[in-house]
Design goal:
Layout lengths: L2 H7 L2 H22 L5 H20 L4 H11 L10 H5 L13 H10 L20 H14 L6 H27 L13 H20 L11 H23 L6 H26 L2 H27 L8 H30 L1
Helix pairs in contact: 2-8, 2-9, 3-7, 3-8, 4-6, 7-10, 8-9, 9-10, 10-11, 10-12, 11-12, 11-13, 12-13
Length: about 350
C-alpha cells in the first residue's frame, strides 16, 4: 500500500474510532486467546501486529521526524528560542495556510516540542530517545523467539500477552498516524495522539503485570516491555503537554499548570508502579525520562537567556522552566532511589 493511500485513510475520526475499538476489544481478544486458541494463530498475530507497527513508524511526516530533519538542515536553530507566535502556531482565525507559507507553518508545530525553542514545559532532550533502540530490538527478539522450537517457557505465556501485545502495536501505529501537523493546533484532534500513547501505556501495563510473575530466563523477554511501559507513561505526558501548549488560545498559566502537574504525575507513577509491582526497570525508565525533561528545561533557560532579543512576554514561562527543571530532576532522583532500593531489597 502506497504512502498516498495510507495518508488518504488517515482521518482523525477514523483513528479515534480505531483506538476506542482497540481498547474495547482487549478483554474479548484476551478471552479468546486464553480459552484454547491455536498457539500458531496467536504467534502469527503477534508477528503481524509488530510488523504493522514497524511499518507505521516508517511512514514519513510525523512531527518529531520533521523537527529532526529541520534541525539537520539548519531550518531550526536549537540555540535560540522561537518567537511566541511561532511556538504557538498562531495564524489568523478562519484562514487556511497559504501554500507559500506551509513550510514555515509546519515549523511552528515542530518547534513546540523542542527543548530550547518550544513552549511546552515537558520536553526531553534528544538523547532520551535512544531508548527506542533497545525497546524495538528487545520486542523483535520476543517476536522471533516465540517462533523458535524449544521455547516452552515463552510458549506458556503467549496466550496471556497476545491481546495486550496486539493492542500495544495498534495503539503505537495509531499514534504514528495522529502525531502529525494535519491534526491541527486548536481542535479536539490534537489530543488524539496523547490518547493513543495512553492506550499504548495501558496495554503495556497488562503485559508488565504478567511479567512480574515470571521468573528465570523467560523474565528477560519482559525487559523491553518494562522499558516501553515506563517510556510511554512519560511520553503520554510529554505529548499531552505539547498538545495543550500548541494552542494559540491557551494561556501561559494553563501551560505551566499542565507542565508542573505532568512532572508530579510522572514521579507518582514511577514510585507507585515500582513499589506495587517490584518493578525497578519501570522506575529507572521514568527516572530517565524525567532527567531528560529536566535537561531540556536547562537548555530552554540557557537559550532564552542567550537571546538578546527576548522580550518580557515569555518571562512567566521562563520562570516556570526553572521550577520545572527542579521538579523533573527531583522526581528523577526519587524514582531512581526507589528503583534501586527495590532492586536490591
Amino acid at each position: 500500500m502506497s504512502f498516498r493511500v495510507v495518508t488518504a485513510l488517515n482521518s482523525p475520526p477514523l483513528v479515534a474510532a480505531a483506538g476506542l475499538a482497540t481498547l474495547v476489544g482487549i478483554p474479548f481478544v484476551d478471552a479468546a486467546a486464553t480459552s484454547g486458541a491455536s498457539l500458531a494463530l496467536l504467534k502469527g498475530a503477534n508477528v503481524v501486529s509488530f510488523a504493522a507497527n514497524c511499518a507505521a513508524v516508517s511512514v514519513p511526516g510525523r512531527i518529531d521526524e520533521r523537527q529532526d530533519q529541520e534541525m539537520r538542515r539548519g531550518a531550526l536553530n536549537p540555540t535560540k528560542p522561537a518567537a511566541t507566535g511561532q511556538i504557538r502556531g498562531d495564524s489568523t482565525p478562519g484562514e487556511a495556510t497559504p501554500l507559500a507559507d506551509q513550510e514555515h507553518h509546519t515549523s511552528s508545530y515542530n518547534e513546540n516540542y523542542s527543548p530550547a525553542r518550544g513552549r511546552t514545559l515537558v520536553s526531553p532532550s534528544g538523547w532520551a530517545f535512544a531508548i527506542w533502540g533497545p525497546i524495538y530490538a528487545g520486542e523483535a527478539i520476543f517476536v522471533a523467539a516465540q517462533l523458535l522450537p524449544g521455547s516452552s517457557g515463552l510458549t506458556e505465556i503467549i496466550p496471556q500477552v497476545t491481546a495486550p501485545f496486539i493492542a500495544t502495536n495498534i495503539f503505537q501505529s495509531l499514534w504514528c498516524a495522529s502525531f502529525r501537523p494535519s491534526y491541527g493546533t486548536e481542535g479536539w484532534e490534537k489530543y488524539i495522539s496523547p490518547a493513543m500513547l495512553a492506550g499504548t501505556a495501558y496495554s503495556l501495563s497488562l503485559i508488565h503485570s504478567v511479567g512480574t510473575g515470571i521468573a528465570g530466563a523467560t523474565a528477560w523477554y519482559f525487559f523491553p516491555f518494562a522499558l516501553h511501559f515506563g517510556w510511554t507513561t512519560a511520553a503520554t505526558l510529554v505529548n499531552l503537554s505539547g498538545s495543550v501548549s500548541m494552542g494559540s488560545s491557551t494561556p501561559d498559566s494553563t501551560v505551566i499548570a499542565v507542565g508542573h502537574s505532568s512532572a508530579v504525575v510522572a514521579t507518582a507513577f514511577g514510585i507507585g508502579v515500582t513499589l506495587s509491582q517490584s518493578a525497578p526497570v519501570y522506575g529507572l525508565t521514568v527516572a530517565w525520562a524525567l532527567a531528560a525533561c529536566g535537561d531540556g528545561m536547562k537548555k530552554r533557560i540557557a537559550a532564552v537567556n542567550a537571546d538578546r532579543n527576548a522580550g518580557e512576554e515569555g518571562v512567566d514561562l521562563l520562570r516556570a522552566a526553572g521550577v520545572q527543571k527542579k521538579l523533573c530532576w527531583i522526581g528523577s532522583g526519587v524514582c531512581t532511589l526507589v528503583a534501586l532500593t527495590t532492586m536490591f531489597s
